[in-house]
Amino acid sequence: MESSVPDFVLFIGRFHPLVVHLPIGFLFFAFILELYSHWKKHSAHSMAIEFALLAGAISAAVASVLGYMLSLSGDYDVSTLDTHFWFGTVTTIVTFFAWAIRSGKIDIGKFNVLKSKIAALTLVVVLVSVTGHYGGNLTHGSDYLVKYAPFGRTEKVVLPSIEHLGEATVYDYLVNPILDDKCIGCHNSSKKKGGLSLQDSTAIMRGGKNGDALIAGNAQKSELIRRTMLDPHHDDFMPPEGKTPLTEEEKSILSFWIEKGNADFKVAMADLEAPEEIISIASLMLGLEDKTGKSGIAMPIVDEVGTEVLKDIVAAGFKVRELVYGANVYEIVLPSKSVSSEKGDGLDVKLQKLLPIKNNILWLSLKDNFVQDRHMETIGQFKNLQKLEVEKNPITDAGVGYIASNESLTGLNLYQTQITASSFDIFAKMKALERVYVWGTTITEDQVANFQAYGEGPTIILGM
Amino acid sequence: MEEDKSKSENPLKVNRRHFFSQLSVGIGSLALGSLLIPDLFKGGPKPLASQPLGIPHFAPKAKRVIYLFQSGAPSQLESFDYKPTLAKRMGEDLPDSVRNGQRLTGMTAGQDKFPLMPSAAKFAQHGKSGAWVSEFFPHIAKIADDICIVKSMHTEAINHDPAITFFQTGSQQSGRPSMGSWMSYGLGSENQNLPSFVVLTSRGKGNSQGLYSKLWSSGFLDSKHQGVLLRSGKDPVLYLNDPDGISRSDKRHLLDHVSSLNKLHHIETGDDEIESRIAQYEMAYRMQMSVPDVMDIKKEPESIIKLYGEDSQVPGTYAANCLQARRLAENGVRFIQLYHQGWDQHGNLPNEMAGQAKDVDQASAALILDLKQRGMLEDTLVIWGGEFGRTNYCQGNFDPKNYGRDHHPRAFSIWMAGGGIKPGITFGETDEFGYNIVKNPVHINDFHATIMNNLGLDHEQLTYKYQGRRFRLTDVAGNVIKDIIT
User: Fold this and answer.
1) Which residues cross the membrane (chain B) (predicted)?
2) Cβ pair B59:A387 closer than 8 A
3) Contact with chain A for residue B327, Cβ under 8 A
4) How many domains does chain A fold into?
């Protein structure tokens, strides 16, 4: 639908927002001066009021004409526009009357002259205010004025809070908030720039003057995305100059919804195969703990650890490294040969020191430290452990049994221990386990081949 | 007062910022700050840049790097980038449409013709992944399913020194900190008795290019992040051993005394490098004990020596260095940089390259296998590659048995393994001439960004402010190549 209005008219029309402030200023000035002159009389006041009223009337007339031109663009909601138009017109006419009364062109001597002057001006001011309010609603949206007001705030639709990302419907929880933040200011039911409203699903599907806003399954061809991806200096770039552009993260959420979610308004995260990056962004947007971390490693939510506790652990001979800034997760390393007793005496006390942070340990290395089966029982309590290095220790199958219930361990190093192929069944039970290192044990290649033939369980890695 | 005076006389510590930070500027400047930086007083997560050092920005996949640098630039066309078209069109001039204005080095700029030269080495596909590897590298061929071959590396430099400097420091001009120094700066040390960045060099019989200590320099970073070159032979670190007649306790007393003098000097001048110096003396003292132990490869069993090859028993060879690298990795060194010189085949390529390949093939593969069986490939990122590639046309006389290749920056191959890199894949593609990249280009900045990512470091956040601007290893570029990350 191409506009048949000449460009020149639309161009002139765009001066409406500029000119419209002149009558507002003049008329308020006249009103204030009128009030003031009742308190302190001065002959100059009368002249000034008269002049301000005339200037106000003329500028109001010009603004009205310009406003009409602007309205021809068709970007605005018709009913609000109508109200604004009529209030504007009435304001202009009444202002002329007010001027006529003030200057004595119309004699209404029967009434009390003094009061009529005030009454006319008050009416003018009220009209200007009402007109201005509707004009504001047209430009900024109907909830602009009261959005941050302390009273009578229209309650936003509150989405039920969710605990898992999978529950989130992509549109309601992710897409709509972005549109609301960056687009709806100009594309709403009362102000439809380019004939497009992004207020709700029906409006989005209706598209705008330039056709459909989105093409399900094809983000590149969807206007909604294409325009945000353009060079910022391009004429079609959205949001236009001066407005905050979409961030890369926001763009990728929108693209993801259109592409992978087929622009379905009901589809939930759980229905889609979301790449790590999207999961990460979405988690952040919803204030959920990022389950993947930026590099795709699952991060547990754990309590903060006191510095005293850490000092204690360091004093026991462990190396402590914070694994991710601010996530309270740690890598703990006991340097090789820190334990000298073949029975592993001394290690018990050391491991006790780790218990206060048992949920915070992600990586643990105790290689070559005479770790016994009984120590594995303690390690079994470290439920968030992802990597465990206990190679070169006298651990047997019984020791492995103690960590069988761990559900987060991905890498387990047991090379040069005393385990046998009986441990395979335990490995198979451990949900997250991906790789087990068993070089230098009695385990043979055939045993490994047999186990791997089932196709389930972790990869067992033997040596040369 | 006394201290203030001496500091103000010393330009090292007092600069404009120092001066302003000492003024009691009061609440007004805070309010101004909050206007200029809207998020200043907002709660929520702190910006990454304000993080303390030594803690990854996000969950790491690797905790150390072993970089097997093939200095001189091995030809991709005789190693990993199989181009049968070169055989079909042997001797034909490289079409201008392919060369597309590529600048040439002074060595071939005078050539009238650029005749296409096929590989003298035969290629075959290996492993489940079907990766193409030439016959020069039979051992690496066997680990094809453990490595990720990137065929689409590219650089801007066309000569060795800027090219290798670019790879090591992220800039063609020298002076920036080395990769290893950045990692040490970003991740801290794991073993207090060893430097976090160690360098080992070896040299093949092929035409070689120089190696300079600037390649492992810490640049403007604290000098404790500098790479420490360990020599082959009896004294891995020169002057580390106590002279005859000096006992270890004498040495201790000496160090304590020197250290107290240095501390006084530090109070006087405020120069932080003095503190680094004190720390380095202490490190050297501890290394007197730790290094001989780590470097003693006689403890290795027969099976391991067989794995790395007989050369691993000869100090100073690439094979011995690979074995050392594994031992250093086991002992908590963060970044182990090997260089093997001799890959600059401007002539006599088939012979020289076969020799070079023989030097490194078995030991490189052995290192991967050895790390894998020890479970260390989980968190050790291994990189194998040179500073650029070589031309698809012949340099010098056109003789398929004895030809040379000039420098080529537009496309070359490297491989990586372990430490969160996808095993058994080939990434990127070149055109049928092996001259231009047609798919998934990887710039050096991208390469750096990816390595840092796997160590848990955000390449855009790890910065160091120097001479009025913030520096990064990737400077103002670099994208993490997500497709090669597990």
Assistant:
1) 20-41
2) no
3) no
4) 3
